[in-house]
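User: For a benchmark we're assembling, each entry needs the component sequences followed by a predicted structure for the full assembly. Here are entry 17's components. Please fill in the structure.
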Amino acid sequence: MNEHEDSLEAELASWKPVPVSERLKQRIGQDIDQSGPFRRRVWLLAGTLAAACLLVMLLLRTKQDDNPRRLLTASSIPEQAMEFSDQLPSLRVYTRALNQSTEALDVLLDRHGAMGSRGMLPKAVQQAFPSSPSPFMN
Amino acid sequence: MAQEHDDWASWMEQHGSSLVLLAQQYVGCRSDAEDVVHEAFVSFWRSRHQAQDWTAYLFSCVKHAASNWMRSKKRRSKREEASARPEVETWFAGNIEKDEWQKELLQVIAALPTDQREVLVMKIWGGLSFPQIAQALEVSANTAASRYPLCP
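Assistant: Structure for entry 17:
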């Protein structure tokens, strides 16, 4: 029985399956050979896109970080705040007033003097201008 | 070991004909079997590093590709037609059809259930061991051996 099966097995093994067609080999070869460079190109494209996205995100973040600084610039200070800061004595305010005219500087100095006498200026500013004994007081 | 050959043409040269023969056991028509092997081989080549036994995995890929092919609704009618009349004359090279005894033997093989034919093809023409066949078919080695039509 086993001998018969062995011979049958040997006989079947001697049959050779029809070889693969050249067309199939070519199709497989095209798919396999093209998949390498194609995949590499896809990865390269994906990497480039990711890098570009990262760069854009970094730029946006940097701009956001810059915004508070821009808020501090004179042009971005609200009108009301500007007026308030004009009321406080500072070198910048005096310079600007002097640039306009000497009368403007006088007016500003008068205003600050009046504010100081009424205690409307912050303490730090009042201490910056200690009241000196007036020669006319004596 | 076969894994050492990392050249698809060598793999195709060594297993191509038995892969197409295996695919013919499921899909009948030779041109469809070549389509199945095309899909299976490309899939195998791209994912072969995941497998421990590449040869068993290659035959497993053909089995899966053939299953997908058969599941396809578009091809159903074509499949039914093909299974009704398997192209046994395209299975083997040479003059098998001319020898009366060989012709009868071929008809006997063609009449076997698919699960026996797939084991026969993998064992005789694919050169796989029963553990490899078991791995390819995702069954136990005993089940694979019991499906072998020439099992003593």
